[in-house]
Every structure is written in structure tokens, then in C-alpha cells.
Amino acid sequence: MSGFDRFRDRHPILLNSALMAVALVALGYIALLFIDVFTSHGQQVQVPDVRNLPLEKAISILDEVGLRWEISDSTTFYENYPPGTIIDQDPKAKSYIKKIRIIYLSVNAMHAPIIPLPKLVDLPGRQGMATLRAMGFKHVTMDSIPSEMGGLILQVTVDGHNVAPGKPVSVNSQIKITVGDGSIVDLNPEQVIDPEIMDSIDEELYQEAQKNYEEEMKAAQARAEQEARNQASQEKKDQNKKSDKDKSKDQDKNKEKDKNKDKNKDQSKKDKKN
Description:
Elements lengths: L2 H8 L1 H27 L5 E3 L8 H10 L3 E6 L12 E5 L5 E3 L3 E6 L6 E3 L8 H11 L3 E7 L4 E9 L2 E2 L5 E3 L3 E8 L7 H4 L10 H71 L1
């Protein structure tokens, strides 16, 4: 019996433990080899900078260095970048990564999103602007025109044109909201002076407002009466002119008749002589 056989018979547990240790070491070494192969250990490349490049050119550059890529976002539109341009990348440019890593690309959308225009007329101006900006519209301005009601939206234009609510509009369109400034005041005292706050208004101011209103109404009535008189006078003049023309025509006709009578008389005399 050899020495190994005697050791195995005397110390079986020790021998099995030693064999297991050797097997574990071998398996660990093999595992490390596989990890190096599958994780490209020690094989790193520098990430090229493909920002601001068209998507096709960026893909070509990444393929040349053996890097994989995926598009992470292509729905956002930036008006400062051409359509289809790389906006951002992850990992960042000039960083070192393994070839198994994926480069995620953010691409500018091919066109700006199209959104139906909401109904805004009769809403407060600030609410209308907040609504449009929350929906993604980027160029929203507001101006005002004289009106009785102040702060309410009277008109909405898109790129200078009236657009009906619900019509699809680009988020990059120039949208202008026109609101009333409340500068037009109705002179009707029932509307100018609210009965609920009558007691808080100075009596003198009220009387002055009432007087101004009555004077304005009288002036308006006088202007209307004067216009009516002017119109009547003009109509009378037109009738007189027409009458004079008719008289002149009648006189011309009578003269023509007299001439014809004279001609007939002369002709009759000549006939009798002959």
C-alpha cells in the first residue's frame, strides 16, 4: 500500500477538505477568466462627443469606436437646435467606459408639438396666459384695448390670425392675448353709481356726475336734432332742384311744340301757294 493510500485511509476528512479547497480555487480562477471576458476587463474606450451632431452622423461615430447606443428621448423640441440633432448624451463625452456600456442619446424632435388651442375668450387674462404656458406654448404675449370690462380676454390671435378654439397650433407659434382695460365708462347714472354704495359717495360728487350726465344727454339730443334739421333742409333743397329741373324740361318741351307749330304753319302756306 502506497503512502497516499495509507494517508487517505487514516485521514479521509482532511483529504476531502484539501480536495475541496483545490476545487474552489480552480473554480474561482475560471470564474475570474469569464468575468474578464464578459465584462471587457481592462478594455475601456473614451466616449466621443456627439452633441450638436445629426443623429445619423452620431451613430456612425459611435459605431466606429464599437459603442452601442439607444435613443432615450426624441419627443422634446428645442427651437434653438435643428430637428434631429443630438441634444445630450449619457455617459458624458470624453469619459472612459467599457465597450459593453450603452450610450443613451437625447434627440431633438423633428417638429414642434401640435396642441389644440383652448377656449380663452371671456377668461381673465392672467389665467389665459397661465393656461397656455402650462400646455407648453412658449411665445405668449398680452396687450389691452379700451373696453367696459377690464381684465377679460376679448380676442386671441395666432401668428397674427384669428384661430378658432380647438384648432391644432404649434407650441412655437406667436400667440397674443387681447384683454379689455376697463377704460370705457357707461354714462348711465344707474350703472355709474351703484345704489349699494350710494351712502359712501359724497353728495356733491354725485350731483356733479348727474349734471355731467344730463349735459351730455342734452348735447347728444341737440346734435341729433341738428342732424335731423340738416337732413330735412338737404332733402328740401334736393326737391327744389328737382322741381326746377322739371320746370326747365317743361319749358323746353313747350318751346319745341311752338317751333313745330310754326313749321307746320309755314308748310301749310307753301302748300296753298303751290
